[in-house]
């Protein structure tokens, strides 16, 4: 009787690990994308005709 519960718990933990990994990847990707955009703005501003 405890075997299905262990399996469900293991599946739930695996699902949570995948969710956390996906969130970390997304946050890192979005942070780098935003940083690149800010860098681009500074680069273009530095090279603008004044």
The first-to-last residue Cα distance is 76 Å
- What portion of the residues fall into strands of 2 or more residues? under 5%
Classification by helices and strands: mainly alpha
Total helical elements: 1
Beta-strand segment tally: 0
Name the helicity range.
over 70%
- Shape descriptor: rod-shaped
SSE series: H
Mean pLDDT: 89
The stretches of 5 or more residues where confidence is low (pLDDT under 50) are none
> Radius of gyration, rounded?
22 Å
Query: Main β-sheet, in a few words?
Result: none
User: Oligomerization state of this entry?
Assistant: single chain
Describe the overall structure.
With about 50 residues, the chain is mainly α. The protein is built from one helix and no strands.
Care to give the gist of this entry?
The protein is mainly alpha-helical. It is 90% helix and 0% strand.
How is the topology of this model organized?
Elements: H1 2-46
Keywords, please?
50 residues; mainly alpha; 90% helix
């Amino acid at each position: 009787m405890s075997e299905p519960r262990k399996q469900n718990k293991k599946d739930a933990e695996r699902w949570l690990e995948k969710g956390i990994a996906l969130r970390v990847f997304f946050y890192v990707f979005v942070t780098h994308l935003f940083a690149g955009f800010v860098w681009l703005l500074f680069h273009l501003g530095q090279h603008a005709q004044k």
